[in-house]
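Shipment paperwork, digital attachment
Item: protein structure file
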Amino acid sequence: MLEHSEIKVKLLRLYLDRYLNVLTQSQYIGDIYVYDLFCGEGIYEDDGKGSPIVMLEAIKSIYFGNKAGGVATDKFHCSFNDISVSKVENLQNEIRTRRLHYAEMGNLNFTAEDYRKLLPSVIEEINSFTKQKAFVFIDPYGYKDIRISDISNLLQSRKSEVLLFLPTQFMFRFETKGTPESLVEFIDELMPVEQWPVSETGIDFIQNLTEAFRNALGSSFFVDSFIITRNKNQFFCLFFFTSHIYGFDRMLDVKWQIDEEEGRGWRFDSGDSLFDQIEVKANTSRFERKLIDFLKVERTNAQLYEFRLHNGHLATHAYDILKKLQAEGKLLSVKGDGTPARKSAFYLDYKNYRDEPNKIKIKLR
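Attachment content:
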């Protein structure tokens, strides 16, 4: 199991632990459907756990934890697919051996189909949901079968979230060196190929791709990237898509929690670090420039909350910039009634977004 795969699965597990728990506590949400469309065989040769094993471990823990606590839990229905019949059979054996699933938890479905042939039925099922919610994990063998229109169709009912892994290092390498037809088709769906910005580094390519995803899906959806480094200057990336603002909030929190656990804070401090210092500084600087431009017009705390999410940052990142602007005397902040707001109080969390979206208004002087 390669290091980038290990971190990819770690992010998946942390997110499922947090957000699936939130879903099971909601009276407005019914059964939860989980799809792994390139599931593999579950266990690597070095006994590393793949995505389907991690998914079922998280679901089993949540389900029986809620049951023990007397919490009524809706069912989890899992669908695992891989084009390789032998991999699917190996996965089934691993699940049985490890006792990761019981009938009371929900349905367990296995298929060995081509992704492109299977996808329409997955989209149709998700679009038929009423109270149900779906989480779709797409970890393809390459990228030739991936289309942004597929992601859009998976999201259109607003009942699902998608986590997509892409080998961006290989995509970047081919961008200017004999671009293959599959990459041309991939980019052309996002924008005319001739308008695609030149990427100086693999990080630039990921930033350009993230912006292109956001522009293609529109402001009703949230998109963020999670960069994984196998070796220095070799970047792979997970992209997260959702229309659910709190789900996106939770993913950002998990993303930065992983940084804290690794003790690297998105900095490349040593040869085995997972994160690159240049990326952090570039992202923070870009966010600050965008935020300053955004505040040329008066904004509410709710608008600022949405803005920082769309740009992939936590409340603390926005707070630091706003407090600096305030200390420099460049920021005007007032309550909803027009009276001055308390200094350093910006209310950029989900609770204030939901309950008091117009609590304060902020703009540059």
